[in-house]
Write a structure and sequence with these properties.
Structural class of chain C: mainly alpha
Largest sheet of chain B: 2 strands, antiparallel
Distance between the termini of chain B: 20 Å
Oligomer: heterotrimer
CATH class of the largest domain in chain B: Mainly Alpha
Number of helices of chain B: 13
Distance between the termini of chain C: 50 Å
Shape of chain C: globular
Helix content of chain B: 55-70%
CATH architecture of the largest domain in chain B: Orthogonal Bundle
Radius of gyration of chain C: 23 Å
Number of helices of chain C: 11
Order of helices and strands of chain C: HHHHHHHHHHH
Chains: A alpha+beta (363), B mainly alpha (309), C mainly alpha (269)
CATH superfamily of the largest domain in chain B: MetI-like
Strand content of chain B: under 5%
Number of strands of chain C: 0
Strand content of chain C: under 5%
Number of strands of chain B: 2
């Protein structure tokens, strides 16, 4: 029934209040069919609240939620064809993992035998068949996580909700599971709604990301767009690393803005709608878009002194201090070791960027 | 009985390890002499001969057990017939204790659950309210229950005055009154272990069940109850065992017709009509039953702990 | 449009049952208390408020019996509570702070033995014990029996409290040249006081309230308050019994409440 581009979850003006505290301040967004969608934000931003509202564990103070066009806000959780992978997994300790995975099917009316059969198939998909008679406490964290996944997918929900499911895993396992989840979403074609506070995780896995903070939606878009064109200071700072500079716009000429950084330093960058001459705004420049040189170059060049170099394996991060001005963090890849020169602290150098690298932020 | 697997709780340290034997001596002395030894003496007494004015003659005899189980002497002319009187009394006691336990469970489980799901700062108050009546003298509690339920008592007065019934409901001196009395005596023992178990329960499991299409009552049956099973069983045992050997409730609320083990035993040691060895024998049988139940329970707990380990 | 909250923890009817439960637990006590102030001689007819039955307890025809019984009860309770609390404190120190030793579990089992055995069995066994050593039944036998079964009641709050106190305080004391005994008396004991007081109060109440064991071992001439009340009840429930009952249950409730608040006091902060 779900067509290629139909809307799986439509949230319209959803507000969530707990007494005098507002957790969600009027959120509207649409999640597409067959999409890997991520809600990203720091703790307390409301992403888990929104997820639980979709699952049915929190009521909607104001607004509506639609599942493929059907209103679900008033349905109890056990009547919504939506399943959740819990952060703590919440596997039933007194049941074997086969019984766990078959539980949703039994509740939906399948006979015990049918449910167990289908559960067995699910366990094969997550490669845990040989443990089917074990209890959850006898499995490792990573295995429990896969059981939770199998259990949520077994009833073939229309949407799968994942509440920070990878947060308890160690780094290597986490990276492996990220790929597995992405793969699983592609294979099953079920819409995944993923909640995380880890921006790198979000960038790796998602088709689209909704960045949230303090109960509000900051920006919604594809991973690349959010990274390269952050809309405001929060998004620029939260996603990846960036140089955040306070600037004032001196002139606007032909779609370009000439900005003053303080201490006499000036930069030209693309103008953004809503920002005019005289505005005091923030500017974001990604460290990897900068490069260091001994002499000024044809791109935008700023003179400064090297403060420090930090070796981080794949890159070298160099911090440069502009006289009477802000500091810049420059990230240089370590790949071309022979040819790239490392500038020692104290050296006078130039920080360079191409025209499109700096981005003015609407606050 | 709610002790941890190590018995006595965790070991905080071994600061006083040197003097521990001296420290324990008073307790050992008193309890070995006054708790442990008497039980063995009781066992011995059950095999002695009764003295007519109470007490015993130190002569070995199986008369006590004989009287309990058999109609005539084991070594009489006719083959022995099973004496059902006393066995019936024991059976009735088991039945009454069971009914009281069931009543406590039906009322106590929802109560324990409700209290355990109150906000954290309110819970101790509820627990306190539930346990206070337990600390009131059992005799007074039983007497007050008797007073309340009497034919001319306030309950019947109330029911008649609001027109629900025409003549008093006869409650005292029935089986139900005894069960009610036992329930009243030991209810907190049902509530507390269940409360502790529900408090430890992870409600994310209930959410998961709801997420997987189970409604609340199915969730209760298939997810919550199995998880708090140990608390429920502990509560049942803590009500059943004291009820089995109870004396006051059957005596004051049950009347002469409904003799239970407690009354039977008590009779044997009262005044001059008593039969001490018989009373000792009946007590031994009761003690044995209780110990068997406790051992089964302890084994269940050990198994459950192992499964969770 | 708003939606209703799915209260995952709430089950219909549970609250009602809880309130019913509380009602059933307190109703008989409340009724007895109310009727103890009944001005009428008959317990069935209500005739207004009066303190006459309280007066009757103290000066009426049976007052001598009750006074003597009360004196016995309180005397025994105080002595039994004191002794059992002391014994329990020492035992608790050994079990909680004595390290792991072979008799540890057994010791704990022995201490909790009176709790697990039905009271009537304890009563019979104790009576038989006194009979076997030909000890005359009377106040002494009651006292001795009480001491034994009060020990577990005193033990529980004491050991609970002791477990909650870190041994770092005692170790600090010994680091500062205190002997083990000094560490015990100057550091551990004061910190444990709330638990000890709580244990004492519980043991006191348990002794005061005991009926079955007392009834068995008391012998013909002696009465404690519960046995006196029982004897009186057997002749029919009279209003002065309600008065005594109300007084006794008030004492119990007050002591338990004090014990509760004392045990909550945290003097390690």
């Amino acid at each position: 029934m779900s067509a290629e581009h139909s809307i799986a979850i439509d949230v319209k003006d959803a507000v969530k209040r707990y007494g005098s505290f507002t957790a969600l301040k009027k959120i509207s967004l649409s999640i597409m069919d067959n999409e890997f969608f991520t809600l990203l934000g720091p703790s307390g931003c409301g992403k888990t609240t929104l997820l639980r509202m979709i699952a049915g564990f929190e009521d909607v103070t104001e607004g509506d939620i639609f599942l493929y066009g059907q209103e679900i806000a008033n349905l109890p959780p056990y009547q919504r064809p939506v399943n959740t992978v819990f952060q703590s997994y919440a596997l039933f300790p007194h049941m074997t993992i086969l019984e766990n995975v078959g539980f949703g099917l039994e509740m939906r009316g399948k006979s015990k035998a049918d449910a167990r059969k289908r559960a067995g198939e699910m366990l094969e998909i997550v490669q845990l068949s040989q443990f089917s008679q074990r209890k959850p406490s006898q499995l490792s964290g990573g295995q429990q996580q896969r059981v939770a996944l199998a259990r949520a997918l077994a009833p073939q929900p229309k949407v799968l909700l994942l509440d920070e499911p990878l947060s308890a895993l160690d780094l290597k396992l986490r990276k492996a599971m990220q790929l597995e989840l992405k793969h699983l979403q592609r294979e099953t074609g079920i819409t995944f709604i993923f909640v995380t506070h880890d921006q790198e995780e979000a960038l790796t896995m998602s088709d689209r990301i909704a960045v949230m903070s303090a109960g509000e939606l900051q920006q919604l878009g594809a991973a690349r767009d959010i990274y390269e064109s952050p809309r405001n200071m929060f998004v620029a700072d939260f996603i990846g690393e960036t140089n955040l500079l306070e600037v004032s716009v001196d002139q606007v000429v032909n779609g370009r803005a000439i900005c003053h950084l303080g201490g006499g330093h000036e930069l030209t960058c693309n103008q953004v709608d809503g920002i005019d001459v005289g505005s005091k705004v923030h500017m974001s420049v990604r460290p990897e878009r900068l490069f260091i040189s001994q002499e000024p170059t044809e791109s935008e060049s700023l003179k400064g002194r090297v403060l420090d170099n930090v070796f981080v394996g794949t890159d070298i991060t160099t911090i440069i201090d502009l006289a009477d001005g802000p500091n810049f963090t420059v990230r240089t890849s370590n790949s071309d070791r022979g040819n790239k020169r490392i500038f020692e602290p104290g050296n006078e150098v130039y920080v360079n960027m191409e025209l499109g690298a700096a981005r003015l932020l609407v606050d | 009985m709610a002790a941890g697997a190590t018995g006595g709780g965790s070991i905080a340290s071994d600061t006083y390890a040197e003097t521990r034997n001296w420290l324990l001596m008073p307790a050992w002395l008193i309890l070995a002499v006054l708790s442990l030894a008497p039980v063995f003496l009781m066992l011995i007494y059950s095999f002695l001969t009764k003295e007519f004015r109470g007490g015993v003659i130190w002569e070995f005899s199986l008369a006590a057990y004989d009287q309990f189980f058999f109609d005539r002497g084991l070594f009489g002319d006719e083959p022995p017939k099973i004496e059902w009187t006393y066995i019936t009394i024991f059976w009735r006691s088991i039945w009454q204790a069971g009914a009281a336990t069931l009543l406590s469970l039906v009322i106590g489980f929802p109560t324990a659950y409700y209290i355990a799901t109150r906000p954290a700062h309110v819970r101790p108050i509820w627990v306190f309210l539930i346990t206070i009546p337990y600390w009131v003298n059992l005799l007074i509690r039983t007497v007050s229950m008797k007073f309340l339920l009497r034919d001319q008592g306030p309950l019947n007065d109330l029911l008649i005055s609001i027109g629900l019934i025409d003549s008093p409901i006869h409650i005292v001196n029935t089986d139900f009154a005894v069960q009610l009395g036992l329930f009243y005596s030991y209810l907190p023992f049902m509530v507390l272990p269940i409360y502790a178990a529900v408090e430890r329960y992870n409600f994310a499991l209930s959410e998961a069940a709801a997420d997987l299409y189970a409604n609340k009552w199915v969730t209760l049956r298939r997810v919550l109850l199995p998880s708090v099973k140990s608390g429920v069983i502990a509560g049942c045992i803590l009500v059943f065992v004291p009820s089995l050997g109870s004396f006051l409730a059957p005596d004051l609320l049950g009347g002469a017709k409904n003799l239970m083990i407690g009354s039977l035993i008590e009779e044997q040691f009262k005044g001059n009509a008593g039969n001490w060895p018989f009373g000792a024998a009946a007590s031994m049988i009761l003690l044995t039953m209780v110990l068997i139940i406790l051992m089964i329970f302890a084994r269940q707990q050990a198994k459950a702990q192992k499964a969770e380990g | 449009m708003a939606s209703r909250r799915y209260e995952i923890k709430a089950y219909t009817g549970f609250k009602t049952i809880t309130l019913l439960c509380l009602f059933v637990l307190y109703a008989p006590l409340v009724v007895v208390t109310v009727y103890s102030f009944n001005a009428s001689k008959s317990i069935t007819i209500w005739e207004g408020l009066s303190l006459r039955w309280y007066a009757d307890v103290f000066v009426g025809p049976e007052s001598e019996t009750f006074k003597l019984a009360a004196r016995n009860s309180f005397l025994i309770a105080i002595i039994a509570a004191t002794v059992s609390t002391t014994v329990a404190t020492l035992a608790s120190t050994a079990i909680v702070r004595g390290g792991q030793f072979k008799l540890r579990t057994v010791s704990f089992g022995l201490i909790s033995l009176p709790l697990m055995v039905p009271e009537i069995v304890t009563a019979v066994a104790t009576l038989i014990f006194f009979n076997s050593i030909a000890l005359e039944r009377g106040l002494l036998t009651i006292l001795v029996a009480h001491i034994a079964f009060c020990i577990p009641f005193a033990y529980l709050p004491i050991s609970a409290r002791m477990q909650g106190i870190e041994d770092s305080y005692e170790q600090a004391a010994m680091d500062l040249y205190a002997t083990r005994r000094q560490a015990f008396t100057k550091i551990l004991l004061p910190l444990m006081m709330p638990g000890i007081i709580s244990g004492f109060l519980l043991a006191f109440i348990v002794s005061l309230d005991d009926f079955i064991i007392t009834n068995f071992v008391k012998g013909a001439g002696v009465e404690t308050l519960p046995t006196a009340i029982f004897g009186a009840v057997k002749q029919g429930i009279k209003p002065n019994i309600m008065a005594i009952s109300t007084m006794l249950l008030s004492v119990s409730i007050i002591f338990v409440t004090i014990s509760y608040f004392v045990s909550k006091a945290d003097n390690t902060k």
